[in-house]
Design brief:
transmembrane helix; 8 helices; phosphorelay sensor kinase activity; 355 residues; HisK_dim/P_dom; Methane Monooxygenase Hydroxylase, Chain G, domain 1; five-stranded mixed β-sheet; elongated; alpha+beta; two-stranded antiparallel ribbon; 13% strand
């Protein structure tokens, strides 16, 4: 029950109790006055006439007054609690991308107006903090790219010039780690720019079915080392409006995850259906599965479930975060369904382009 409804009930209870009390007092006073005016011999007649008059007063005066008072009280409480309702709605919509938006103040200087001012000041401080984090991440990513590129080039040069078997193995290992660091830096830079609104997506007609077929062919190559079977169950014609490069990146991220987090001789199933004005993509794999309590966090940055930590799977925990951003930027939805030792399915829904 809301505070407004609770206050209204309290107010109604007090109002009707007051009406009952006033009626009782009126009955008493009328009885006494009639008894005095009629004298002692007519006291019984006065007491008999008193209740009828009191009921008439309560019926024609008390009840209408109570109804008017109740309606007026409800209106006053609604008006008084309206700023609280607005503040609650605004607080429920707060996220890192709209912290700069302010709630309009009433300007009357009451407690609720001051609470609104405090809330606006709090969101302003949070906005500044998020901006500092974004700036730091962008600058750090930019500064890290140069030394990583130089180190990568030097190691490749050393590898080409020739060396003994022990040093060659060590150089190859270092190259792998540098490539992994470069991938992390690129992913962080992409997500930070996306958060800051610095990435503009193209809006062009894209045949999603063609991208799915290309991704299916690439997945067969990626799966050769782990002997994972790739199956394209269905591929309906689907035309969407979006950025072809980002949509391809989305498909590669999801299929790469489905292959990496899989068992040897496992399988990956890809489905694309056009239904009810939407393109519905499903990518399922026979991996170790994910515990239910971990599912809400799978799209968080750098989050990897226990199965990923305990295996020799390379990754930085940014692939699904990037996939979620791409889907959201295209006006779609992404969801993961899984359970331990069960089929894991990622479902992506994108709006079809209406010609």
């Amino acid at each position: 029950m809301t505070i407004r409804n609770r206050l209204t009930l309290w107010y109604a209870s007090i109002l009707f109790a007051s009406t009952f009390l006033i009626t009782a007092l009126a009955y008493r006073e009328l009885s006494a006055e009639r008894a005095e005016s009629r004298g002692g011999s007519n006291r019984e007649a006065a007491e008999e006439d008193g209740p009828e008059d009191v009921v008439s007063i309560a019926l024609w005066c008390g009840i209408p007054a109570a109804v008017v008072g109740l309606a007026g009280g409800w209106w006053l409480m609604r008006k008084a609690m309206n700023p609280v309702v607005k503040l609650t709605e605004a607080a429920s919509k707060v996220h890192e991308s709209n912290l700069h938006e302010k709630i309009a103040r009433s300007g009357n200087g009451d407690e609720l107006d001051k609470l609104t001012e405090v809330f606006n000041a709090m969101t302003a401080r949070l906005d500044q903090s998020f901006n500092r984090i974004r700036e730091f991440t962008l600058h750090a990513s930019h500064e890290l790219k140069t030394p990583l590129t130089v180190m990568h080039g030097e190691l490749e040069t050393a590898l080409r010039e020739g060396t003994d078997a022990g040093n060659k193995e060590r150089i190859v290992s270092q190259l792998d780690e540098i490539q992994r660091l470069t991938k992390i830096v690129d992913g962080l830079s992409l997500l930070t720019k996306a958060d800051a609104g610095l990435i503009t997506l193209k809006r062009e007609k894209v045949r999603l079915s063609d991208l799915v077929k290309d991704c299916y062919e690439d997945a067969q190559i990626l799966a050769q080392s782990t002997k994972v079977q790739i199956e394209l169950k269905s591929c309906d014609e689907a035309l969407v409006l979006g950025d072809r490069h980002r949509l391809r990146q989305l498909l590669l991220n999801l299929t790469d995850n489905a292959i990496k987090y899989n068992q040897e001789n496992g399988s990956v199933a890809i489905e694309l259906r056009a239904e009810a004005g939407e393109a519905r993509l499903k990518i399922s794999n026979t991996g170790p599965g994910i515990f239910p309590e971990m599912l809400p966090r799978v799209f968080d940055r750098f989050f990897r479930c226990d199965a990923a930590h305990n295996s020799a799977v390379e990754g930085c925990g940014l692939g699904l975060s990037i996939a979620q951003w791409i889907v959201t930027a295209h006006g779609g939805r992404i969801e993961m369904i899984s359970a331990p030792k069960a089929i894991t399915t990622v479902m992506v829904t994108l709006p079809l382009h209406q010609a």
